[in-house]
Amino acid sequence: MTKLQPNAKEGRASMSYEDKTLACVECGTSFTFSASEQEFFAAKGLTNEPKRCPDCRQARKQQRRESYDDGNSYGYRQQRQMYSAICASCGKETQIPFEPREGRPVYCSECYAKVRR
Questions:
Q1: What is the percent of the chain where pLDDT is above 70?
Q2: What's the pLDDT tens digit per position in 12-64?
Q3: 116: left (phi > 0), else alpha (psi -120 to 50), else beta?
Q4: Strand 30-33 to 20-23 pairing
Q5: Which one, 31, 35, 50, 98, has least CB within 10 Å?
Q6: What is the pTM of this model?
Q7: Domain residue ranges of the chain, discontinuous segments joined by +
Q8: Which of 74, 69, 60 is closest to 25 using CA atoms?
């Protein structure tokens, strides 16, 4: 529980923290959210208490790191499917992130930059 106590030296209020016991949403284990961790969270502007125990937090970070290392910089997002198409301007084959439709022009990167201007 947090309590506001006046700080006599500086003349302003400071926070005093007490250890809390929380339950992990991943594994259900009880863990202690220490007073020093609470102070750290407050200093960083974090308003929510942690939902995961330290072990589950570490495992989640590792999983996100591995996902990033696999070339997937969007966390859990899968790679986009790319489609082959012929540029309507120069006739060069190009890869696009959407399925081309009949009657709609498709441009390679260079030609698209020219058309946009």
A1: 77
A2: 445 689 999 999 999 999 999 999 999 999 999 999 999 999 999 999 998 88
A3: alpha
A4: antiparallel
A5: 98
A6: 0.46
A7: 3-69, 83-116
A8: 60
